[in-house]
Amino acid sequence: MSRFTDLPDLALRALGGSVVAASDESFAEKESLIRPGRPGFLAETFGNKGQVYDGWETRRRREPGHDWALVRLGLPGVIRGVVIDTAWFKGNYPPYASVEATAVEGHPSPAELLAAPWTEIVPKTGLKGDAEHHFDVADETRYTHVRLTIHPDGGVARLRVHGEVRPDLSVHDGLSLDLAALANGALVTSCSNDFYSAPNNVIAPGLARHQAEGWETARRRDDGNDWLVIRLAGRGLIRLAEIDTTNLLFNAPGQVSLTGLDGAREVPLLPVTRLQPDTPHRFRLSHRDPVTHVRVDIYPDGGLARVRLHGHLT
Predict the structure, then answer these.
(1) Residue 296 shares a structural domain with residue 188
(2) Taking 90 as the threshold, does the pLDDT of residue 54 lie above it?
(3) What is the DSSP secondary-structure string of the chain?
(4) Which one of 60, 162, 170, 242 has the lowest number of neighbouring Cβ atoms within 10 Å?
């Protein structure tokens, strides 16, 4: 599996993505393309349109052409890789697919998107049925939308667009913001353990609905502790830290500490501090030093639902 899948899925519905238009969705709805989680399937489950599929499926074309779906990235950014998943589509998958990307600011309509200039990031490539197809992307351009084209028709269960978030932070000029938010360009660059769930979950938008939507480590059997490092949206001064253990009833850490990093310099932000299970904690910080990264240490192990670091960009 390509390592680009460790990066956030910029198109994910849970991160604000949307399938804004499609050429056809006669058999299965286009919105399924960007749903969280693995596609499901229950054999011999029929609706008015035939077998029910957890994916996007178009009619059988009887004329030349191809089908397409336009996806607005919930988090604009640099795309590092694309996954086209044809799970459960065995006799009705498209034999070929391609992906293009464009950057259109504001709130464009489908017609405006179709008229925009597009760049091919995944050339027309053969697909297999009931399989994940991973495509590396070598392009440093910031994109806001992608277009999946299937040749000529058929079904795709999921489209994943992994990359690095590149937001427009000018809207925050003069205002405070969450410097650790994935939506603002922050990223977890390293962690000690991700056995149960991905560390980037702790900086995802919204609240965690259950413990799998946070970060949780395996049980430690040594004298160490677990940790992660967050690259902030930009160099900034942090004034308020939120450490949320919601949903973690019996596996919350006992304590937490925060250390800012600015090059080789370490800045103590929050000393080792007690945490409670299933609780949002808020800590005012009194330091005066801007930092670019923050190390979050939990003692000894466990999980966090969210980490928020509010402050100002320098």
Answers:
(1) yes
(2) no
(3) --GGGGS-BTT-GGGT-EEEEES--SSB-GGGGG-SSPPP--TT-EETTEE--SSEEPPPP-SS--EEEEEEEEEEEEEEEEEEE-TT-SSS--SEEEEEEE---S---HHHHHTS--EEEEEEEE--TT-EEEEE-----EEEEEEEEEES--EE-EEEEEEEE---GGGGTTS-EETT-GGGT-EEEEES--SSS-GGGGGSSS--SSGGGSEEPPPP-SS--EEEEEEEEEEEEEEEEEEE-TT-SSS--SEEEEEEEETTEEEEEEEEEE--TT-EEEEE------EEEEEEEEESS-EESEEEEEEEE-
(4) 170
Q: From the centroid of its chain, how far is CA 81?
A: 12
Structural domain of residue 183, as residue ranges? Answer: 170-313
Residues 8 and 121 in one domain: yes
Are residues 106 and 220 both part of a single domain?
no
What CATH number does the domain containing 83 carry?
2.60.120.260
| C-alpha span between 231 and 223 (Å, rounded) | 27
* pLDDT tens digit sequence for 146-197: 999 999 999 999 999 999 999 988 888 888 999 999 999 999 999 999 999 9
Question: pLDDT tens for residues 11-41?
Answer: 999 899 999 999 999 888 999 999 998 998 7
